[in-house]
């Protein structure tokens, strides 16, 4: 196994190479398996699949009993995501479906931006390696084994560098350039992930809300597009400040934004959206003054096509626009009150 470790170390400056192998022990030919593995995991265009591919590849090549990939979200504030890969009863490496809490040693590794090794209370040897990009820790890797794992350090660091480069590119392609919020192409993945996660405190609902800035054309016409863009940017900041860390924020395009909220009942979702609406209405936007948003929301369930949920929230948003703007309306509530008129109930489409 030292073959793989030493090769990755060759690309590093001598001062930071931590492998214990002497230069004479380094092979000159790259093992095809290592290249195959790197090619396979960087083939993914989906970040979840990439994360799992990294953990599985590293667990096989190290080899390790388990590999944990812990990731900070792009703004460094929002909740970390965790992928854990373990060996199953048949000896194969598989992704552990159970959510695990991040070990405090992982957080320390990200904070210090340095690798370290320890032995835990179960007697397992552990190796922690930060995933660094432009002086920032994007996340960290944790390898677990029955024997010391220092020999796998160079391999893990090499994988961390490849992963950091690649994830940065992928994340940029998923973000709106102006606001840094997710763009629309990631919406379905985030919705499915929220719908599949175990309900918190018995509340299973996921809510989708669409916001639209009221009379935004006037802002552009009066102050120009540069100020219009500034309003969009500041609105995104208000979203980040107002919603919970595990809510997922998108700019769908233009002056249209989407939020996915999980773990709320109807009143909770409405409360969170109303708080945001009021916050925006009270915020003084430089030069432009006060701006309001209209909000429509709808419940999402696993049986819905994403377009159906968007369509329902959009109907509630349209209602809010038609009834004075600077308002929040829920599709299910409007439907129950008969306020939407004789509309077909979205979701009851006959396919045949
Ligand atoms: N500055 C800026 N303006 C944008 C952007 N995307 C869309 N717009 C403008 O947003 C405005 C949207 O106008 P409308 O759809 O007519 O709606 P509105 O004026 O907001 O009115 P209501 O939605 O009915 O309250 C148009 O003037 C677009 O040019 C953007 O990225 N930057």
Automatic annotation (TrEMBL):
<dbReference type="GO" id="GO:0052621">
    <property type="term" value="F:diguanylate cyclase activity"/>
</dbReference>
<dbReference type="InterPro" id="IPR000160">
    <property type="entry name" value="GGDEF_dom"/>
</dbReference>
<feature type="domain" description="GGDEF">
    <location>
        <begin position="204"/>
        <end position="333"/>
    </location>
</feature>
<protein>
    <recommendedName>
        <fullName>diguanylate cyclase</fullName>
        <ecNumber>2.7.7.65</ecNumber>
    </recommendedName>
</protein>
<dbReference type="InterPro" id="IPR043128">
    <property type="entry name" value="Rev_trsase/Diguanyl_cyclase"/>
</dbReference>
<keyword id="KW-0548">Nucleotidyltransferase</keyword>
<dbReference type="InterPro" id="IPR029787">
    <property type="entry name" value="Nucleotide_cyclase"/>
</dbReference>
<dbReference type="Pfam" id="PF00990">
    <property type="entry name" value="GGDEF"/>
</dbReference>
<keyword id="KW-0808">Transferase</keyword>
<dbReference type="InterPro" id="IPR050469">
    <property type="entry name" value="Diguanylate_Cyclase"/>
</dbReference>
